[in-house]
Design brief:
83 residues; mainly alpha; 4 helices; globular
């Protein structure tokens, strides 16, 4: 799966969760910070871990969303997990 496809699917997950302003999610980049820029709460982080695991068929193992600061961190982790 291409990096751009991973990013697009993450945006879809964020929009379906209605976790933030849709315009903010649509315009987010890999440099967007999860908490500061996208407004993730701890509950939103937990939801996203579950949604990502189900959508990409991966497991986070010993890491969680709290270990990621930016969308780039999440995309990179997913990309490596899919190899």
């Amino acid at each position: 799966m291409e990096r751009s496809e991973i990013t697009a699917r993450l945006r879809e997950l964020l929009l379906s969760a209605n976790m933030s302003d849709p315009k903010l999610i649509e315009s987010c980049t890999e440099d967007s910070r999860l908490i500061e820029d996208l407004g993730f709460s701890s509950a939103a982080m937990l939801y996203m871990v579950i949604a990502i695991e189900e959508s990409f068929h991966i497991r986070f193992g010993n890491v969680g969303m709290a270990d990621f600061k930016t969308l780039r961190d999440v995309v990179t982790y997913i990309e490596k997990a899919l190899e």
